[in-house]
Specification:
By secondary structure, this protein is an alpha+beta fold. It is built from 11 helices and 14 strands. Helix 2 packs across helix 4.
Length: 391
């Protein structure tokens, strides 16, 4: 297991784990980050404009009750072993959600995905816990707040989009928020590990205890746009709006099943490794009235997108002039986070979020969002041309 930072010291601690970012991430379904370039202009022109309801850009998300865990607590590991399991799954690209040492429903789904790929019964926890224990023997580490935090934190960032449009960057609001997202957790968990005083007074070059996970380096994101790829463009992604999960499948070898976890085309047959499944992540879908079920393709993929709010587009399906629209600058606290993968259905995309702790616990007005640390992995898995089924 590599160190979290080159100069950090690994530290194993036993400390008995959710952050409430002030910004709610509201991404209306019919909004577009930038004018898409259709693969087939004639076909795109034939698509009727989407019907949309007026949306207040400052309207908060709609809270929902997340799916309750379905595995008995007695089956799950606790303490450091639970955190090791979450880190192991995270780094295997089966996202367990926010790292907190308390396995919930998203950890259960990640365990199922790992079992499916490796040929174990979906509800078995013995093999995955054993593998995690060996792979992540030290689940906690000491990390140093980097000097780059100064470039990505703005305590005075407005909360209203109408004012954010005049900002230069949608930065983090605190050094604690920066470090929590960097290590795939939330501020309350950092407080649990380090105490309020230390987290409330974080400064560059201070050291704190964090989950020993591969960090999300916001300072390395350059705003790249990603092109089609011979392998990744042939893959298939399934967005399950009931499970709140996106599952990504390889084109070759073909997946044995492209169904919900637990779907068994041959009841009673022993499980076989499903090597076609390569990743899964928790998601938050939009409100049911905005979800566009069906199969689409990834049209574009960009880092640090600008979010364009356009009421005329929402009302009529036609873009207004730039003077009449509202552009929210890029950054980790943007409504679309740090990455956008737009689909061939106009205005629909997979993207990041300003509020990772709300994934699976609130519905936005629009698209499919992931925690920024998961969203930044999408261009290593899917590219323009990848088919995306929303079900």
């Amino acid at each position: 297991m590599p160190n979290v930072l080159p100069l950090t010291l690994l530290l194993l601690l036993l400390l008995p784990a959710t952050r409430a970012m002030a910004q709610s991430a509201t991404a209306p379904l019919t909004l577009q980050v930038a004018p898409p370039l259709p693969n087939n202009p004639a076909a795109a022109a034939a698509v009727p404009p989407p019907r949309a309801l007026p949306v207040d850009p400052d309207t908060p998300d709609t809270p929902i009750t997340p799916q309750a865990p379905k595995v008995a607590a007695s089956v799950k590991p606790t303490g450091d072993e639970a955190l090791s399991l979450q880190i192991f799954l995270d780094e295997a690209q089966f996202g367990p959600g926010v790292l907190d040492g308390k396995p919930g429903r998203f950890t259960e789904l990640a365990v199922q995905a790992w079992n499916e790929v490796n040929g174990y019964p979906l509800e078995d926890w013995v093999a995955v816990v054993s593998a995690a224990r060996k792979a992540v023997p030290t689940p906690l580490a000491v990390a140093v707040v980097p000097d780059s935090v100064k470039d990505w934190v703005d305590p005075g960032l407005p909360t209203k989009y109408s004012k954010q449009a005049r900002s230069k960057k949608m930065s983090y609001r605190s050094n604690a928020e920066f470090m929590a997202e960097r290590y795939h957790c939330d501020v309350p968990y950092l407080v649990e590990l380090n105490g309020n005083r230390k987290i409330d007074n974080l400064e560059p070059r201070h050291s704190i205890i964090v989950p020993n996970v591969q960090p999300f380096h916001i300072e390395n994101i350059s705003g790249s746009a990603y092109k089609a790829d011979d392998t990744m463009s042939l893959r298939h992604a399934v967005v399950d709006t009931k499970l709140n999960q996106v599952r990504i499948f390889e084109a070759v070898p073909a997946a044995l099943v492209v169904e919900e976890p637990g779907s068994d085309p041959q009841p009673g047959a022993p499980p076989r490794p499903n090597r076609g499944l390569i990743a899964s992540f928790p998601i938050t879908p939009g409100e049911s009235r905005f979800i566009k079920f069906g199969t689409w393709q990834v049209r574009n993929a960009v880092e640090l997108p600008i979010w364009r709010y356009d009421q005329q587009l929402l009302d009529t399906g036609k873009r207004s002039s730039d003077a009449e629209s509202l552009e929210i600058p890029p950054g980790p606290n943007s409504p679309v986070g740090i990455f956008w993968a737009g689909l061939t259905k106009p205005g629909i995309g997979l993207h990041g979020t300003a509020s990772p702790e709300t994934i699976g616990r609130a519905r936005s007005h629009g698209c499919i969002r992931l925690a920024n640390w998961d969203a930044i992995r999408l261009p290593t898995l899917i590219r323009p041309g990848t088919s995306v089924e929303i079900r």
